[in-house]
Amino acid sequence: MAAENQMTVLEKREAGEGMTLGERPVPTPGEGEVRIAVKSVGIDGGVEGPFYRWEESYHRYEPHLPQVFGHEFAGVVDAVGPGVDGWSGGERVAVEPRISCGRCRNCRDGRSNLCTEETGFSPHGRKAIGIDTEVPGALAEYVNVPARNLYELPEGVTFDEGVFLELLAIGVHGIDVSSFGVGDRVAITGPGSAGLSALIAAREAGASEIVMIGADVDEGTRLPIAREMGATSTRNVADGPLDDPVDVFLEASGHESALHLAESSIRPGGDHVQIGVYHGADGVSVDFNGLVNEEITVHPVNARRESDWRRTLAMAPSVDLSPVVGPAFDMTDYEDGFAAEAAREGVKVVLHP
Ligand SMILES: [Zn+2]
Q1: Which end of the chain is more exposed for a tag (fewer CB within 10 A), N or C?
Q2: pLDDT tens digits for range 293-331
Q3: What's this model's pTM, rounded to 2 decimal places?
Q4: Where do the domains of the chain lie?
């Protein structure tokens, strides 16, 4: 427990593996901000995990250390800054981590995920809580966030489940932008948070068949969880193209082998939804002639729009998210939490500040 007006944070202080528990002043919310008492924070295998392990893609943060990460989180409104209407304190909330201006064309269109004004240090070039160097994250007892980024948790949805809502909204986004119709057949590559979110969204939207495709590393835990969450079948990416091409293929792994599997597993006239991000300097090659010949429509999905949050919050009380959240650790046991993430235990490892 930190001293009065101080809070415990988990920060990376210097270049190298690991993080350190420390103390910082409890932040005072500024104009338009609220302070959140953080109850649960997710470890993102693409952000906090590699940052903790100090993988090369995060070395560009070195001049900006120390940094407090943590961008997937839920908590309680603890204090309200000047100019904030509609929040009084005590509300249980999930938080949109992307910071947006609210004024640009995309924000006005309900697409704040593509805000053109709030540029930042994150890999996608936009400002995000707990990823941008200027905006400390939620691996802390308290964090300030813009009030416009709050979504009240529905009754019965736990803080750990609240962490997963921003991920579930990505799957909802993917199904919503495609031409998916009730009864359609769906395949998904990558049974991580994003792929399992797409699975839940497809199930709730009325898919007749959902094939979840993983790799060897997914056979032990994540493919069985996919079956528990409603996949009608699971298979290994090494098994090759689907015998019966699907209407909508959601690629959520970011692996080139999955992209090529998709190219040969979508029915003519069907949809390819790209959720996974391909890392590496060279990118991937796409067979555009194949897309033209078969009239495959590609829908890129980047985070979530306001409408995806609305649909997700409406769905959340009736969806059992317990198989995809956890294991959970006290933040002081962060080493165990990051070890669990690295070992791919469960789906979404969470820490409790
Ligand atoms: Zn904007």
Answers
A1: N
A2: 999 999 999 999 999 999 999 999 999 999 999 999 999
A3: 0.95
A4: 6-157+321-352, 168-300
How far apart are the CA of 234 and the centre of ligand 1, in A?
40
d(CA 40, CA 45): 16
DSSP state of 29: P
Q: What is the distance in A from the centroid of ligand 1 to the CA of 136? A: 20
User: Are 104 and 161 contacting, i.e. CB atoms less than 8 angstroms apart?
Assistant: no
User: Under CATH, which number does the domain 6-157+321-352 receive?
Assistant: 3.90.180.10
Measured distance CA(324)–CA(346) in Å, rounded? 7
297-300 and 233-236: which strand pairing? unpaired
The predicted-structure confidence for 189-235, as pLDDT tens digits, reads as follows 999 999 999 999 999 999 999 999 999 999 999 999 999 999 999 99
Residue 105 Cα to ligand 1 midpoint, Å, equals 7
Candidates 9, 129, 148, 30; CA nearest to 79 is 30
Contact 70, 41 (CB under 8 A): yes
Residues 13, 6 contacting (CB under 8 angstroms): no
| CA-wise closest residue to 328 among 92, 96, 163 | 163
Task: List residues, by chain if needed, whose CB lies under 5 Å from ion ligand 1.
Answer: 100-101, 104, 107, 115, 117
Count CB-CB contacts under 10 A for residue 91.
18
Q: Which two tokens stand for residue 153?
A: 């948790």
* Residues 246, 265 contacting (CB under 8 angstroms): yes
- Which CATH fold would you assign to the domain 168-300? Rossmann fold (3.40.50)
DSSP string, 162-206: HHHHHHHHHHHHHHHHS---TT-EEEEE--SHHHHHHHHHHHHHT
How many CA atoms, within 13 angstroms, populate the side-chain half-sphere of residue 273? 31
User: Separation of 107 CA from ligand 1 center, angstroms?
Assistant: 4
